[in-house]
């Protein structure tokens, strides 16, 4: 994934949370270069961070069904891979 800022919209399919995101991937350009996520995340720049370094993780895609879900404990869980709560409850998740 390119390190270009994207300015598209993230939409959680479970709680209907919608917000513009700046980047989707595992190495956001506005985090420290040493930080690399184990999953592809949707994130925005932290508007309060000094030197434009820092961000806020919004969510990711369920590793089973592929739907976008936010990081709320009511919508997803992360245990090696992101999983929406629906897939986790019915046991469809792959760990």
From TrEMBL:
<dbReference type="Pfam" id="PF10170">
    <property type="entry name" value="C6_DPF"/>
</dbReference>
<dbReference type="InterPro" id="IPR018785">
    <property type="entry name" value="CDPF1_dom"/>
</dbReference>
<protein>
    <recommendedName>
        <fullName>Cysteine-rich DPF motif domain-containing protein 1</fullName>
    </recommendedName>
</protein>
<dbReference type="InterPro" id="IPR042426">
    <property type="entry name" value="CDPF1"/>
</dbReference>
<comment type="similarity">
    <text>Belongs to the CDPF1 family.</text>
</comment>
<feature type="domain" description="Cysteine-rich DPF motif">
    <location>
        <begin position="10"/>
        <end position="90"/>
    </location>
</feature>
